[in-house]
Amino acid sequence: MYLTSSSLIKSSICLLRGKIYDALDNRTLATYSYKEALKLDVYCFEAFDLLTSHHMLTAQEEKELLESLPLGKQCTEEEQELLHFLFENKLKKYNKPSETIIPESVDGLQDNLDVVVSLAERHYYNCDFKMCYKLTSVVMEKDPFHANCLPVHIGTLVELNKANELFYLSHKLVDLYPNNPVSWFAVGCYYLMVGHKNEHARRYLSKATTLERTYGPAWIAYGHSFAVESEHDQAMAAYFTAAQLMKGCHLPMLYIGLEYGLTNNSKLAERFFSQALSIAPEDPFVMHEVGVVAFQNGDWKTAEKWFLDALEKIKAIGNEVTVDKWEPLLNNLGHVCRKLKKYEENASTYSAIGYIHSLMGNFESAIDYFHTALGLRRDDTFSVTMLGHCIEMYIGDSEAYIGTEIKDKLRCYDFDVHTMKTLKNIISPPWDFREFDIERQTLDESGIVTLETSNQRKTADTTRPLEETFEIEMNESDMMLETSMSDHSS
């Protein structure tokens, strides 16, 4: 029941051997050595901590390790119950967050900071960032430099876009722990979050990986600094390094798949998404990306299934969900509904809603939505192109416009010069947008306000031919699905 001195010595040797292999970047032998150290001495916390904090095991391997530990031989009955609880609580980071069940023998442990961090980590990986932030904030108040909490807390600050708080935290960490990689990781994340500071971010993240080459979160963030600049090769190189270092984490696989998807390599993207899904089956981010690949392959039903599954996971989070992060999912679900001709279920962004109105022959409403979309994003080529087609269809079908010049027909919409230049090349017959702009300026100066014409809706029997016309004319590549479901958080 008790450990012998021989077992303790052998365990220490295995732990040291594992650290040496770790320093030589031989993660396979390092993992094996740590597992052996833990089997020889189940109280060898350092080996257990290295295995878990560095994500060295997959979920299945973690389960097998827990079952193989000789707790009954090396521990008393009470200690066995406690150790099993602590190990299991630490290893189940991808499980759904739930109330922690504490063994009666150690009642009161629910307030232990390590237990709270484990619960926060489960909330983080289940995308409930606000609840995760509440828990990590409690830990940071009691222990401002809790080693296991800091990476999760920093990642949550990035997800919730709390730049000021991250700035303050990173400065404190650098002042107090300049030789700790998490300090420079925090600084790098701050510069990555504020935008247009990718060079600064890379400088500090590189320092973090120099201090500790095996620090996986810094490698992921390093990849993000290239990904936001569409430097796919450099981004994937960093993500592959993170994947080698963090075998049990699904994030490197997710981001590698994203980069392959952005380079139109859907087969490799699907392979990496499948690996990410096998590690974290409850992550709606991964479900969404699997749905995107299915959409790109023309499998609308499968895409709809994955999008709806992801939506159910989000709804389960409740009122704490950060809505803006899931706009791409709703947008893409709308496009799938459009492909499946479920027009009434299409909940999407303004341009997608406008497209649906155009398919149904409601050109005036479509023009309004495309106009609104261009107000938010003036370089949206799909909205500009569709706007031109909708205007042509609308003015051709409205009796009120018969015999009126095109430039007169467009005065009711306050288009900027950039949009007017683009529309000039789409709408026929040709017209001079500069003349339109000068006349519109004269009208504005005189204080005359033009009235919009009444809504002229198409009848239901014309929907089908129009739908076919637009599906043939429009290039689907102009309306790419949004694939990045996060702000490249680490």
From TrEMBL:
One of its GO terms (cellular component) is anaphase-promoting complex. It comes from the Eukaryota. The keyword Lipoprotein does not apply. The keyword Ribonucleoprotein does not apply. Coiled coil: none annotated. One of its GO terms (biological process) is anaphase-promoting complex-dependent catabolic process. Keywords: Cell cycle, Cell division, Mitosis, Repeat, TPR repeat, Ubl conjugation pathway. InterPro entries: TPR-like_helical_dom_sf (IPR011990), TPR_rpt (IPR019734). TPR repeats lie at residues 347-380. Gene3D superfamilies: Tetratricopeptide repeat domain. PANTHER family: CELL DIVISION CYCLE 16,23,27 (PTHR12558), CELL DIVISION CYCLE PROTEIN 16 HOMOLOG (PTHR12558:SF9). This is Cell division cycle 16. It comes from Gopherus evgoodei.
